[in-house]
Amino acid sequence: MSADSNDAPGSGEQARLDALEGLSIVYTPAEERFDRITRLAARLLRAPIATVSLVGARQTWFKSRHGMRLSEVPRRDGFAPWAIRADGPFVVPDALADQRFTCCGMVTGEPHARAYAGVALRAPDGSRIGALGVIDTVPRAFEPEDLSALRDLASMAEDQLRHMELTSAQAALARELDDARRRILIDPLTQAWNRAGLDALLAREVEFATDRGRPFALAMIDIDHFKAVNDTHGHPAGDGILVEFAERLRVAARPQDAVCRFGGEEFVVLLPGCAPDDAPLVADRIRRRIAADPFRISPDESVPLTCSVGVASWARGEDPSVLVMRADVALYDAKRAGRDRVNVAAPLRAPSSGTRAGSSRSYHPDP
Fold first, then answer.
1. Considering the domain 169-363 in this protein, what is its CATH number?
2. Where are the domains of the chain?
3. To 10 degrees, the CA torsion angle through 61, 64, 65, 70?
4. Phi, psi of 152 (to 5 degrees)
5. Which of 24, 126, 300, 301 is most solvent-facing, going by the fewest CB within 10 Å?
6. SS3 at position 294
7. Using one digit for the tens of pLDDT, what is the confidence trace for 123-164?
8. Class of domain 3-165
9. Known catalytic residue: 265?
10. Gap between the Cα atoms of 127 and 181, Å rounded
11. Which residues pair with 268 in a beta bridge?
């Protein structure tokens, strides 16, 4: 049997695809609740790579990937399409010794997989929509206790599929758009919302805030000294920092927050329901989490990783572009003041009040 035969629709395939589409989860941003599971899977099974894969009609897309930068592969080039057909754990001890995978793109190219173990993930209706899997770059056996741990973690991932935690704005956007339209709103490197996704989320967040009187804020975040790292260590190291930075943002942010890549080394975190007094606290927690550990370029070399943050709280009737501008000004002031700090934009007031929309103040948390 060739790997291509795995693309052929079988009994119940359309129902399976309908169940996947019904979750509105493909081409949505990475979430810490799934990233936590792939980190655990890699650690417990001593594997460099772990993924939560969702299998579509033609593509396998990674909702979470630890240790790998691919965001999707053609269906014939992945392991998950085989895992969803197995009654138990699906194990490949050596992909190059298995005719099904000798021409598989994940074996012949990035990430140069040699061994795989995966467990199917089921939608709430029982359809097998994807897999939790680990990948090693050398041939290996997987012990019974490894597979037992993988089954437990797969059950945890299924629980998360049943309890979607996207904010109202993110959930609404995911439901309104099909896979193809959601795809263009996601940054493939960091798996965060991109600039277009941010614009769409901001418009919806303003609607929710206006209709429900709910506060929200925005944190504009810039990686300190990113250009120097890029120039010294090269663009692959720079890309690694961007991926790691986005992961740390998701860890530090609240479950309902939306992480967006604004462009280059700038990110935005939307803070729905966050009152003006609370937004700097959340932003400073993010800043401290980013700075907690250096970024490891290689086993023998690491660089500090810090960020500067500008925070702005939305004022009723304020245009989203003005909110972004105020946060950007506060960010610029934080960088000018020495970096690795949070600056808060002054509340937006009428021009007659004498307060400029572009002013900001430093935030100093209590020790």
1. 3.30.70.270
2. 3-165, 169-363
3. 30
4. -60, -45
5. 300
6. coil
7. 888 899 999 999 999 999 999 999 999 999 999 999 888 765
8. alpha beta
9. yes
10. 24
11. 220, 260
